[in-house]
From TrEMBL:
Keywords: ATP-binding, Nucleotide-binding, Transport. InterPro entries: AAA+_ATPase, ABC_transporter-like_ATP-bd, ABC_transpr_LolD-like, MacB-like_ATP-bd, P-loop_NTPase. CDD domains: ABC_MJ0796_LolCDE_FtsE (cd03255). It comes from Dactylosporangium cerinum. This is ABC transporter ATP-binding protein. The lineage of its organism: Bacteria, Bacillati, Actinomycetota, Actinomycetes, Micromonosporales. Residues 5-233 form the ABC transporter domain. GO terms for molecular function: ATP binding.
Length: 234
């Protein structure tokens, strides 16, 4: 398998409080990797470093052979608008925009014409099962609908890697399963790599492999666990 993303000795602290203590891991192209562990173990910090949202204090983040952590903020932002897609726990949709306009936003920022961007956005909303809320604003949608719109926005540029940070943490079980089922289906259809942060075993069960963090380090007992194939597997 091809390694698409790597962390090498990644260290990150918030003031005097360490969050990551030398994390090293490889992410294979096309896989869904779950990063699990208890609250406060550094999962979200690791995801933010891998996605170029923040820089590690030391160590390296490498994407397709090139350093991410040494890029300028502008270049890391371009990476997140193109090769990377990010899905947060609370969706972070723009409240004043319709679902279709929210999904079209990354395309517009990349220079796509408004009409084309809307057409592509509508197709993605249909693809993830919420085409009927295209003209609704976030406040008019359920939590599950909002999160699927946010997922469509993360996928609309057809990124190579999607980073999902507790994507079902604010949803009930049924809505969470709908979001995860759609995400896994699209990822496998497009060979999209997914880095999925969660503290829930049920959510990790949708992944192909699991890495466990404990106190900011990779727990060797959880290194590279291949999850059993089932209804969520390939």
């Amino acid at each position: 398998m091809t390694i698409v993303l790597q962390a090498r000795g990644v260290v990150r602290a918030y003031g005097a409080t360490p969050a990551l203590r030398g994390v090293t891991l490889d992410v294979e192209e096309g896989e869904i990797l779950a990063i699990t562990g208890p609250s406060g173990c550094g999962k979200s910090t690791l995801l933010h470093c891998l996605a170029g949202i923040m820089r590690p204090d030391s160590g390296e983040v490498v994407y397709r052979g090139a350093r991410v952590d040494t890029l300028s903020e502008a270049r890391r932002s371009r990476l997140r608008r193109g090769d990377f897609g990010v899905l947060f726990q609370f969706g972070q949709l723009v409240a004043e925009l319709s679902a279709a306009d929210n999904v079209a936003l990354p395309l517009l920022l990349a220079g796509t014409g408004r009409r084309e961007a809307r057409t592509v956005a509508l197709a993605w909303l249909e693809r993830v099962g919420v085409g009927d809320v295209a003209d609704s604003r976030p406040g008019e949608m359920s939590g599950g609908q909002q999160q699927r719109c946010a997922m469509a926005r993360a996928l609309v540029t057809e990124p190579r890697v999607v980073f999902a940070d507790e994507p079902t943490g604010a949803l009930d079980t049924l809505a969470g399963e709908q979001v995860l089922t759609q995400l896994v289906r699209v990822a496998h259809e497009q060979r999209t790599t997914v880095v999925l942060v969660t503290h829930e075993a049920r959510v990790a069960g949708y992944a192909d492999r699991e890495i466990v963090l404990t106190d900011g380090t990779v727990d060797d007992t959880g290194l590279g666990i291949a999850l059993p194939a089932g209804r969520h597997g390939r």
